[in-house]
Amino acid sequence: MSTIYLIRHGETPQSEPRRFVGQRDLPLTEHGREQISRLSDALVPYCIDKVVCSPLSRCVESAGILCTRFGGVPDVLPNLREIFLGEWEGLTVDEVRDRFPGCYEARGMNLAGFRPQGGESFVDLLNRAWPSFETIVNGPYDRVAVVAHSGVNRIILCRILDIPLGNLLRLEQHYGCLNVIHHDKVGFQVGSINSCLFFG
Question: End-to-end CA distance of the chain, in Å?
Answer without folding.
Answer: 30
